[in-house]
Predict the 3D structure of the following.
Amino acid sequence: MAPHTSSHDRLRLVVVGNGMVGQHLLAALVDAGAAPDLDITVLGEEHRPAYDRVALSSLFDGRTAEDLSLVQPGFFEEHGITCRLGDPVTTIDRESRKVHTASGLVFAYDELVLATGSAPFVPPIEGGDAPGCHVYRTIDDLRGIEADAADPAVRTGVVVGGGLLGLEAANALRNLGLDTHVVEFAPRLMPVQLDEAGGAALRRHVEDLGVHVHTGRATTAIESADGRPVRLTFDGHEPLEAQIVVFSAGIRPRDAIAREAGLEVGPRGGVLVDGSLRSSDPTVSAIGECAAVEGRCHGLVAPGYRMARAVAARIAARATNAVAGPDQRFEEADPSTKLKLLGVDVATIGDIHAEPAEGERRHALVWEDPLRGVYQRVDVDDHGRVVAAVLVGDAQPWGELLARFRRAEPVEDPGALLRPPADPASGGGATIERSTPVCSCENVSAGALLDAISEGCGSVADLKGATRAGTGCGGCVPIIEQVVRFSEGAPAGAAPPLCAHFAHTRAELFEIVRVTGLATFTEIIEAHGVPGAAERQGAGCEVCKPTVASILSSLGGGHILDGEQGALQDTNDHFLANLQKDGTYSVVPRIPGGEITAEKLIVIGEVARDFGLYTKITGGQRIDLFGARVEQLPLIWTRLVDAGFESGHAYGKSLRTVKSCVGETWCRYGVADSTSMAILLEERYRGLRSPHKLKLAVSGCARECAEAQSKDVGVIATEKGWNLWVGGNGGMRPRHAELLAEDLDDETLVRYIDRFLMYYVRSADRLRRTASWIDGLDGGIDAVRRVVVDDALGLADQLEEMMASHVASYRCEWRETIEDPDRLARFVTYVNAPDTPDPRVQFVQERGQIRPARADEREQPVTIGGVR
Amino acid sequence: MTATVDAHGWVPVCDADWIRPGRGVCALVEGRAVAVFLVGDELFAIDDVDPCSGASVLSRGLVGTTEIDGSAVVYVASPLRKQRFDLRTGRCLDVAEVSVDVHPVTTVDGTIVVDPGV
Ligand code: SRM
Ligand SMILES: Cc1cc2nc3c(=O)[nH]c(=O)nc-3n(C[C@H](O)[C@H](O)[C@H](O)COP(=O)(O)OP(=O)(O)OC[C@H]3O[C@@H](n4cnc5c(N)ncnc54)[C@H](O)[C@@H]3O)c2cc1C
Ligand code: SF4
Ligand code: FES
């Protein structure tokens, strides 16, 4: 037979369903060069061309429907494919080889491929079809959920089903700001893939994220009122209030049109097909989730793609009259998966629940590390061959195990694959990828630093010289330090010794100072510095001096400018203000919780006007005044202190702001007085010197307008009290906070924060925010919880006492400074010409305010020297 | 007001006990900003203008010591971007092509004085 040329005698292919697998079939045909020889029609029920369903949830992370599309614009036109969307196929007429669509169109076929996917299973629960009950399968489903969740009266969401998809849906509800519950009928999460202990380990992770888990309960009814769910009831359990319900109780293959056409179906549904994907009618094939290949359905995309390729090869061969090879067959692969669910590694190999074959036995090897939330189980047979595995919390051994499993090779010591590696530097998470960007100012990667180290650089200073890393904003210096430590073979994340003068970490030094009660830098370096350090001229450096100053201050060391301490402070602390690029300073009065009276606003305005300062609202809900010269600082602060302001410590490694929302006082959704709580916390922790700056926030409800989950300590009101989140930050490496404790009353909340902050101040390394401090603790957030909530180390009293003494000894540094002529006398530009301003400080006007003059706008300064 | 020149042609800065060990002050020396430091019992004077930023700030930096090729180097770290300057030579330890001028400094009758030099 000659190749088909005219359109009517080209092979007519009709594909039902333009989902992931249907589209993969089209792409495979195009790739095989078969499109010109085919007359292809694709009929889809959804209104949009195929999209990446696997990435569906990313719609809630800001990705758009277009981002998810799997179809290049113009794809159908370019390859002469007829595509009709939004018009599902309703009947297959096998006799005349035609399909009919809902709109009444009819398409004839020589080959029909069903790729109709599956539909979420909604258990037959009374009220389960009411408005506000959703499934989680399509873009439209998610848009519906989002629209419902945007209604302020919707606060709580329940996902029915604790499998893979259910947990994904739960995470989505949580990200939408809902208080989220998961209800699972089985006694554990992910019952199909995990065993009991694996389910329990996963549950701990999920609960740590603030999702409530209820296992072993069957939903009996969903009660609605005013067109929205209000309550779920259960067999023998308390009902659950909720305004939104998402069903994720499994999927069912969409085989209705095939059944009606008299095609055979599998034992559990699905179009029954053989290994070459042909149904009981050889002109009809089925691929993807709707197919029951030799009786078995596959609910993942990878096997679907393999089916699509097998059918594409067969049809392409037929269309182009290629010599028909043996039919491409679909090989069933083992059901092994590795995923990250809500940030938790979950991986499986084989079927952990399978019964051993006759005469075989299975032996389970288990490794558990509850502190890290790790559970790993490997089942081996009598010959030591891996037959199944479950890994939760740490999936590092998965690749190795899978390779052994696939090769059916005996493993000599299977347990060794599970235990954490003896050399932590090469262990999971502890390696540093060469491609990791370290310094964004100078565009230097970890690899470039490691190269420089291998060429002889031994310190951060050397690396700055050789690579310029860290010479811009300086924000990456702590990471450079880690790279240096890593190259020396220390585990990434381990604390380096402070500097050349102290072999201790900051935490060790803190304990030394706390226990010995030493009160001056000289005493401390004499007794605890490296040998010889104290004798050197000008002992110490710009690293250890401010660190010691901060420790002394955390331990209640008096005014930070007094005595020897005055010489230790960084310039910001020295002048109690933030140094700007031109040598001037900024002034930030504390505005607790962001709340301010009109009177105080007027004072700030008057001060700014009288001293000609640039004024800006900061990202921390307060007001920054820029462009003050050293000698103006006391005058400015005298006015501010008189009006009742105090230092905002914008210059210190200390508490910055406690951001608040307006809360229940004004806001129609608020459930607690978040503003009062923010002010209480800000006034409690103001002035607390710490390893790095501290930011807190309090939100009045789960809508989270104060962004508490991006703070070192975040407090969010619930109907039952306060939820306490810790370890969040923005900045260079933004990190979401983790839930430490729930539903606390005011007193317990403050107690836990006292403990948390003091534990951090005591044990964190220099320049570590709370997030990286927690990451570095063995056990992470669980370790923090053991100390702060469970008081497992018996430290709680001591931590609370330390905080109490901080609170009692707090005094405003600026008030004390302006009240003391001796301290004030330091605030001059020139000691020998106190009334002369620095002529290098030059401003120009912009938008009605001053800003530093740029080089081309400057007048020749009177001072000479310096730049040559 | 400009600072006066004393009998020896040196410019007085401040009383010797005004400077805290390990810290600096800034003085106006014939129109030029000079940073003066007391480290141990030794005085140092260098230009105050940080050549890396153009701002007059070096007197507000922290003083430290480090070892280079086996000998101790006393330096001040600029408070802006932390580049370090050798107090004895004015050489920048972090950026090879940069340095500041050093000035003779001493104490006369309990007053710190700087030689305006060139
Ligand atoms: C003024 C302000 C920007 C503004 O115009 O809004 C600001 C200005 C500075 N920030 Fe910031 N940050 C300001 C809000 C923020 C925020 C937003 C927030 O707090 O909600 C962030 C991200 C949140 C966070 O910290 O987790 C932020 C992340 C940083 C970082 C990166 C921290 C990190 O962990 O990666 C630095 C660098 C550092 O601290 O080492 C930084 C450092 C600085 C310094 C102190 C840099 C310096 O040493 O000169 C800036 C000088 C402030 C000054 O002169 O007064 N600033 N900075 C904001 C002052 C808030 C306040 O009222 O105190
Ligand atoms: C939230 C979510 C997360 C997932 N995560 C993963 C994952 O991590 N890994 C993984 O492997 N898999 C995952 N899956 C499963 C994966 O998306 C499916 O296996 C895959 O989409 C199956 O492709 P398919 O083409 O068979 O079905 P679908 O992609 O569902 O496509 C079928 C299409 O056919 C249409 N259709 C149905 N009936 C008709 C009709 N009569 N006429 C016309 N059109 C019809 C449907 O509307 C649909 O558009 C996930 C699924 C979801 C929902
Ligand atoms: S977080 Fe605060 S402002 Fe936002 S909705 Fe809740 S109470 Fe209102
Ligand atoms: S100096 Fe490295 S990121 Fe800015």
